[in-house]
TrEMBL record:
Record InterPro entries: DUF423 (IPR006696)
Main location: membrane
Keyword terms: Membrane, Transmembrane, Transmembrane helix
Keyword rRNA-binding: no
Transmembrane segments: 42-61, 68-87, 93-114
Record localization: Membrane
Membrane-protein topology: Multi-pass membrane protein
Protein name listed in UniProt: Membrane protein
Source organism per UniProt: Psychrobacter alimentarius
UniProt similarity note: Belongs to the UPF0382 family.
Lineage: Bacteria, Pseudomonadati, Pseudomonadota, Gammaproteobacteria, Moraxellales
Length: 124
């Protein structure tokens, strides 16, 4: 069984490291557009890592299944990963997969909403 709290903590550490690298290591090496991609990727990674922390707690409390966590994790890897890759020189068409990650993240949050409404209905 996956420890989603641990995965969330690793994601947060990576977000801090990549954010610092973008702010200090890339500033003079990439264009303003590429730096913006990097910052967007880091923001989404960090925010979804925090969300995954909450989801991990809900999973441990047996309120929800692992589906939300998987959707968020795969989504953020695809979303942020494609933006990081383009910043580091991947072809611009590589950004065509970025929305797939976004859709998976949206699906993860919607799955959490459905799970919460089901939980609320079951306890009524």
């Amino acid at each position: 069984m996956i420890n989603w709290i641990g995965v969330a903590a690793i994601n947060m550490a990576i977000a801090v490291a990549l954010g610092a690298f973008g702010a200090h290591g890339l500033k003079s090496l990439v264009s303003a557009q590429q730096l913006e991609w990097w910052h967007t990727a880091t923001l989404y990674l960090f925010v979804h890592a925090l969300g995954l922390l909450l989801v991990g707690l809900l999973i441990q409390l047996k309120y929800i299944s692992h589906t939300t966590a998987w959707l968020l994790q795969i989504g953020v890897i695809i979303f942020a990963g494609s933006l990081y890759a383009m910043t580091l020189g991947a072809p611009r068409w590589f950004g065509a997969i970025t929305p797939i990650g976004g859709i998976l993240m949206i699906a993860g949050w919607l799955w959490l909403a459905v799970s919460a409404f089901r939980l609320g209905h079951a306890s009524s």
